[in-house]
Amino acid sequence: xxxxxxxxxxxxxxxxxxxxxxxxxxxxxxxxxxxxxxxxxxxxxxxxxxxxxxxxxxxxxxxxxxxxxxxxxxxxxxxxxxxxxxxxxxxxxxxxxxxxxxxxxxxxxxxxxxxxxxxxxxxxxxxxxxxxxxxxxxxxxxxxxxxxxxxxxxxxxxxxxxxxxxxxxxxxxxxxxxxxxxxxxx
Length: 186
Known about the structure:
The structure is a single chain. Helix 2 (32-57) runs parallel beside helix 4. It contains six helices and no strands. It is mainly α and 186 residues long. The longest helix has 26 residues, at 32-57. The two termini are 32 Å apart. It has one domain (3-169).
C-alpha cells in the first residue's frame, strides 16, 4: 500500500467514524428518517469505496473481493442503523450489501484501465457526501453544548476547500503499485 492510498483510506475512515460518533451520540434528538438516511448512505458509500479498493487488490478473484466488500457494507449498515430503528438496520444492511457488491465489481473491472483516478474520484465523492450527511446531522442536533470549534456548520467551505486542495495535490501521485498478470500457457 502506498502512502497516498493510506492517506485516502485514513481520511475516509476518520470521516465515517466522525459521522458515526455524531449520530450515535445524539441519536435521541434525530428522527428515524434521519437514521434511515444515515445508515443507507454511510453503508452504501463504505461498501462502494472499500469494495473498489478490495476489488483492485484481489483482482481476478471476484468471489473473495465481493464477499469481503459485502461483509464490510452490511456490517457498517447494521451498526449505523442500530441506534435508530429496525427499519434503519434493514435499510443500511441492504444498502451495504449493494454497495459492497458494486464496489467489488468496479474494482475488479477498472484494475487494468485506471484504478488510481477511479479511487481518487470515488474517495472525493465519498468525502463530499459524508460532509453533507455530517452537516445534516449537525443541523438536526438541538443542543448548544456541542463542541462548536470543529463543527461543519461553522466552517463548511473550509472543509470542502481543504479536501479539494488535498485531492488536487494527489492528482499525479500513484496510489496503487499493480504488477501486470502474466499468464503462461504450458
